[in-house]
Amino acid sequence: MSYKQIKWLIMWIPTITIGLWEYLRHTVLLPYLSMELGNLLAPVIVLLVTVTLLRKLFARMEETQDALRREQMLKAALEEREQLSRELHDGISQSLFLLSVKLDKLDQANNAEDVREQTGQIRDTVRHVYEDVRQSIASLRTTPVVTDLPWMQSIYALAAEISEGSGLAIVLDWQMPDAKLTAKEKIELLALLREALLNIQKHARAGKAIVRCVPHGDDREGFCCTVADDGVGIADDRRTAEGCYGLRMMENRAAAMGWEFAISRTSDVSGTTVEICKRGT
After folding, report:
1. Which of 90-99, 140-149, 194-203 has the lowest mean pLDDT?
2. What sign does the dihedral 202-184-245-123 (CA atoms) show?
3. 8 Å CB contact between 221 and 281
C-alpha cells in the first residue's frame, strides 16, 4: 500500500464510519436506541475504529516515511559519490596525466633552460592537483543538499566557507524558491556555484562577488544564476588554455543537466561573470 493510499484511508475512514453509523441508527436501530444513547455511542465507535484500524495505518505510514527517508539518504549519498568520481576524473586524473607527460618532457630536456621550464610547469601542475584534492575534501565535508533542509542554508554555508577562507565579500541575491529545484538540481547547482566561487578565490584577485539567482520563463520553472566578481577579469584564451580543467568541468556538468553555461567579462575594465541557466517555457 502506497503512502498516498494510506493517507486517504486515514482521512476517510472516520467520516465513513460516522456516516454508516448514522445511517444504521436512523434506518434500523432507531426503534431500539434512544437519541441520547445513539449520540453517546457515536464517539465510542469512532474511538474503537481508531484504536483497531487507524493505529495500524499510522504505523504503516510511519514505516513508509522511514523507508522514503532512507531511500532519500541513499540517493543523496550516491549522487555525492557520482559527483566526487566526476571531479576525480575531470580534474585530478587529467592533471596527473598532464604531470606524467611533463615528466617525460623533462627526461628529454637538452639544456638547463628547458629543465627549468619543465620543472616550473610540473610545480604548477602539482599545485593544481593539490587544490583539486582540497576542493574534493571540502565538498565531502560540506553538509549534503537534501530536500528537507532549507535551500538557503546550503547557499549561506557555501558563502561563509569561501569568505572565511579568502576574505572575499560575497553578496547573495537569491530569489529562486526551494520547491522549483529537484534534489539533483540542488546538488549540481551547488557544485557549480562552489567551483565558480573557488575560481574567483584562486585566480580573480577580487574583493567582492555577487551571487544572484532568479526564476526564468513564463511558467517560472526555469532559473538563471550568475556569479559576478570585481577582479582582474578572465583572459580570452583562458577557457581553452592547457590545464584549465575546472572551467571545462563546469561546462560538462551544466551540459549534462541540460543547462546553458556562459563565461564573460563583467565589464570592459575588470571582472568576470559566470552564468548558469535552465530555460523555462
Report:
1. 140-149
2. positive
3. yes
